[in-house]
Write a structure and sequence with these properties.
The protein is mainly alpha-helical. The protein is built from 15 helices and no strands. The chain has helices at about 5-15, 20-45, 50-60, 60-95, 105-120, 130-150, 170-180, 180-185, 190-195, 200-225, 235-265, 280-295, 305-330, 330-350, 350-355. The longest helix is centred in the first third of the chain and has 35 residues, at about 60-95. It is globular, with a radius of gyration of 20 Å. The relative contact order is 0.22. The mean pLDDT is about 85.
């Protein structure tokens, strides 16, 4: 949750939701916290520590597990294309301080970010635990700096961050739905909650406190962005923010490409036996090629949030299956919570066709 989304999502939500950005962020935190709470209580009561796919598979069968792995494998490739396009937009904006109009002009830069990430993923190089531990803090500080100086500067409709011709309600829906890119991570409680060995009350309190912490971070960024500097950043500062953003996001592409390949490997029976050696280079290259294909498809206005619908759709599918598992295997209270959560997730997905048909 507190990863690449720290840099990507505040400008995207601001471009789509405008003055309603805080409301969109609050709705996302409430919905994501509800997902975590239902999932944590479910896995604590029924199974041991597991991934989201493993938990769903243990409760609903192998087909459900493969469905979650499959949608997340595809979604991660679309997500990396969105990250690369955001980095390209930041670099192009640094030139004169104005976000460029959408189109194919940023495609070479986006492909360059993806190429650097894929080459790093293919290399034997591994980011050290210290780098992985400090990277979210670096991303957070950089995101705060970008919020203070409104970076990228006031992106609007017709740029890579917001499609043109989308009505207000449709833009709010796209902002809320795309936020599930940042929300991929609410499901980590499926491994953490059972391992903690806490009772149901302590589990619920821990999840709520975690959701509050995430809310403080994201709502704080949105609030700072809303009160950010109105004077445009100078050229040196623009380039510092742009290059730092591109570097941090490229590091996320590197690790996420490996993660996507590892998830894809689990779809094959032989890939489930051991992931200790990591995914095969050919599979990593195939994931990289898919990322580049998505980046080419994203060369249009609103390409970033539209590409983010890939990870959002995967999260919605995984969370909906978890809610269905709660309805099927939970106690009375958990069944009611799972049914309500499932209804909300389905309701969030229903407007997709009418909204996207006008984009």
């Amino acid at each position: 949750m507190l990863g690449a989304g720290l840099l990507v999502m505040p400008p995207v939500v601001a471009a789509l939701a405008g003055g309603d950005a805080l409301l969109v962020w609050a709705a996302h935190v409430v919905l994501g916290g509800s997902v975590s709470l239902v999932l944590a209580l479910l896995v604590r009561a029924r199974i041991g520590p597991s991934s989201l796919a493993g938990a769903v598979g243990a409760l609903l069968g192998d087909r459900a597990e493969r469905t979650v792995d499959g949608v997340f494998a595809v979604a991660f490739t679309a997500g990396q294309a969105a990250i690369a396009w955001f980095a390209a937009t930041a670099l192009l904006t640094a030139a004169d301080g104005t976000p460029p109009r959408a189109g194919s002009g940023g495609l070479p830069l986006a492909l360059g970010v993806l190429a650097a990430g894929v080459v790093g993923a293919l290399a034997p190089l591994k980011l050290s635990p210290a780098v992985l531990r400090w990277r979210p803090w670096v991303a957070g500080v950089l995101a705060l700096a970008c919020a203070v100086w409104l970076w990228p500067a006031d992106p609007g409709a017709g740029t890579a961050l917001a499609p043109s011709g989308l009505p207000g309600a449709g833009a709010l829906w796209l902002a809320l739905t795309a936020l599930f890119f940042a929300g991929v991570g609410w499901e980590v409680v499926s491994g953490a909650a059972p391992a903690a060995g806490a009772g149901p009350r302590r589990t619920a309190v821990g999840v709520v406190l975690g959701a509050v912490l995430v809310g403080v971070v994201y709502l704080g960024l949105a609030a700072v962005q809303g009160q950010g500097a109105r004077a445009p950043a100078g050229a040196p500062l623009r380039w510092v923010l742009a290059v730092a953003t591109a570097a941090v996001l490229t590091s996320y592409v590197l690790t996420n490409v490996r993660t996507a390949a590892r998830i894809a490997a689990r779809l094959h029976p032989a890939g489930r036996r051991s992931t200790a050696r990591g995914p095969a280079p050919a599979l990593v290259a195939a994931v990289g090629a898919a990322c580049c294909a998505f980046a080419w498809a994203g060369a249009r206005d609103g390409g970033v949030p539209l590409l983010l619908l890939g990870p959002a759709a995967a999260a919605l599918v995984g969370y909906a299956l978890a809610a269905a598992a709660a309805v099927r295997h939970g106690g009375p209270l958990l069944r009611c919570a799972g049914a309500l959560l499932l209804a909300v997730l389905v309701g969030l997905a229903v407007p997709a066709v009418p909204v996207l048909s006008g984009v």
